[in-house]
Design a protein that fits this description.
Length: 305
């Protein structure tokens, strides 16, 4: 039987993106290098469902919650980006700042503005001690801090921007992916929307007294992500299936997404689809192959007609 690995997900370090595996092994992701793996076939699967079917019931298991294994090793959908069963997902969010489950966190928090493409600006918060890690994890093309203070003050400021300026706190990953090859060419152009919104935000009344405003200093991640001149993606992996294969050269990485040059063109792999599967080495002759379900992107339209 071929040796298998279980992926814990993608992490961003000072040196760039890294795939982390169960047991602590880490695989740095270097642009231009090949990313290739096959999904192990669970006992009883026939043909692995590579044509897009569920493949005999799958083989993906819940990854558990907060460092503990799932007690029932529950199956989870191949399309899930959370890789947890309902009960483990509930436990994982029980002490989550993102879910407003922690009100007494003593750490200071940043409020930030993040830009993902034209018309795509969001507001969010992250612990000051994490630095820009949260922005890299989300695939923010550029960002600026807006202010810093206690958790609840940061939350109130986030709510203020949503109510007064209609700034969202979420932008779907599907929307982020399709614009990455269509970004403005210069850092100044990419920074313009954040600079405008930062000025409007600082001018608002009603800021919590304990939140200290910060100057607008836009940080651009185009070079870090490798998005300069990246080709438009033809589609994204919608799920993994037993017996499936993904192989391609890494041309860009933004947030959890790997942009891979394959025989089909550039295909985006959301690495949040990997945890819970047993992965093994792709067989010989699979270079550039993608044999898992793909959701194709619509071709960009140049004009009204």
């Amino acid at each position: 039987m071929a040796h298998v690995w279980k992926c814990s997900g993608l992490r961003w370090s000072d040196d760039g993106p890294v795939l982390v595996w169960s047991g602590g092994r880490r695989s740095p992701l270097v642009r231009g290098k090949r990313v290739a793996f096959a999904v192990a076939v669970a006992e009883g699967d026939v043909d692995g469902g590579v044509d897009g079917s569920a493949g005999g019931g799958g083989g993906r298991e819940c990854v558990g919650a907060r460092g503990h294994a799932c007690p029932t090793r529950a199956p989870v959908s191949g399309r899930s980006t959370g890789a947890r069963c309902e009960e483990c997902a509930r436990l994982d969010r029980a002490h989550s700042v993102a879910a407003d489950a922690v009100a007494d966190d003593p750490r200071p928090y940043h409020v930030y503005l993040a830009w993902f493409g034209p018309g795509m600006v969001k507001v969010g918060i992250t612990a000051v001690e994490r630095g820009p890690a949260r922005l890299l994890e989300q695939g923010a093309v550029c960002f600026s801090w807006l202010g810093a203070g206690p958790l609840m003050a940061a939350r109130r400021t986030e709510e203020l921007l949503r109510a007064a300026l209609r700034v969202p706190d979420r932008i779907p990953y599907g929307e982020k992916r399709v614009v990455r090859a269509l970004l403005p060419a210069t850092p100044a152009e990419r920074a313009a929307e954040i600079e405008e919104l930062h000025a409007l935000s600082v001018a608002l009344g009603g800021w919590p007294e304990s939140l200290v405003p910060e100057l607008c200093q836009v940080v651009d991640h185009v070079g870090v992500f490798g998005l300069d001149g990246v080709s438009a993606a033809v589609g994204e992996v919608s799920e993994l299936v037993p017996g499936g294969v993904v192989s391609g050269d890494l041309v860009a990485a933004a947030g959890p997404d790997l942009h891979l040059a394959t025989r089909r063109g550039v295909v985006v792999l959301d690495t949040r689809l990997l945890p819970g599967w047993e992965l093994t080495v792709a067989g010989g002759g699979e270079e550039g192959q993608v044999r898992v379900p793909i959701r194709e992107f619509a071709a960009p339209q140049d004009g009204l007609f």
